[in-house]
Amino acid sequence: MRQINELLRDSLNDASVSRSERRELKEIFPLIQGDRTALAKTRQLAFKLATEKIQETGNYKAMEWLEDVIKLLYSNEMSVKASSYFSPGKDCLNRICRFISETRQRIDICVFTITDNRITRKIEEALTKGIHIRIISDNTKSEDRGSDLDRLRGSGIECRFDKTSAHMHHKFAISDNDLLLNGSYNWTRSASTENNENILVSNNAKLVQSFQNEFNRLWGSLS
C-alpha cells in the first residue's frame, strides 16, 4: 500500500493522471485485484486525497483525477479471468497443451513428473519457436521409466531437480509472467485416462506473482 500511496500523491500534484503515471498504476493495481480490503483502502485513499486537494487549492480538476484513478482501479478487477478443468478425459490435457502453445516469450514449469508425450511435444515445439523454458521437477521421478525429462533436458531446455529425500510435488506453470496453471493434475497419461484430477487457469496478478516468486525461490535454491 505504501507504493500505491506514493504513486497517488505524486500523480495528484497536477490534478491529472499522466501517461507515465497511468502506466505505473496499471502495473501496480493488478497486484491487489481480488483483495477486497486493499481495493477498499485504495478507493478511500483516492477520495481522501482528492477531497483534501479541493479543500486546499479549490482545484476541482481533482475530481477528474479521482474518476480516472477509480476507473483504473476497477478495470483491473473486472478483467480477472479464471477457468477450471477436470479429468478423466482430455479437458485438462488439452488446456495444458494450449497453455504451452499460446505462450509468447517464456514459460516456467514446476511439476512432479512429465511422462505424457503429447505434452512433451508441445514443450519441444515451444522451444523451436524461441520460447524461453525452465523446468523444475522431482529428482526421483526423473529417473522413472517413461519420464520425458532427460529428453527435454537433452533438447537444450534448462531443467533443475530437487536434491532432497522429500518430493517436489508441485504441479504448476506460469506463462509470460501473466497466466497461471495450477492443480492436482500430473502431466502423465494416467492423469487423463484414469485419475480424478483438476487444473485451474487464472490471470489473477496476485496469484501469478505469488507462484512466480515460489518458482524463482526454488530455481535459485537448486542452482
Keywords:
223 residues, alpha/beta, Endonuclease, Chain A, 7-stranded mixed sheet, 9 helices, elongated
The gist of it:
With 223 residues, the protein is of the alpha/beta class. The chain is built from nine helices and seven strands; from the N terminus they run H-H-H-H-E-H-E-H-E-H-E-E-E-H-E-H. Strands 1-7-6-5-2-3-4 form a seven-stranded mixed β-sheet, with helices on both faces.
Notes on the protein architecture:
The protein is α/β, with parallel strands linked by helices. The protein has 2 domains: 2-78; 82-221, 2-Layer Sandwich (Endonuclease, Chain A), CATH 3.30.870. 50% of the residues lie in helices and 17% in strands. Strands 1-7-6-5-2-3-4 form a 7-stranded mixed beta sheet, sandwiched between helices. Helix 1 (2-12) packs parallel to helix 3 and helix 5 packs parallel to helix 6. It starts with a helix and ends with a helix. The model has no long low-confidence stretch (mean pLDDT 91).
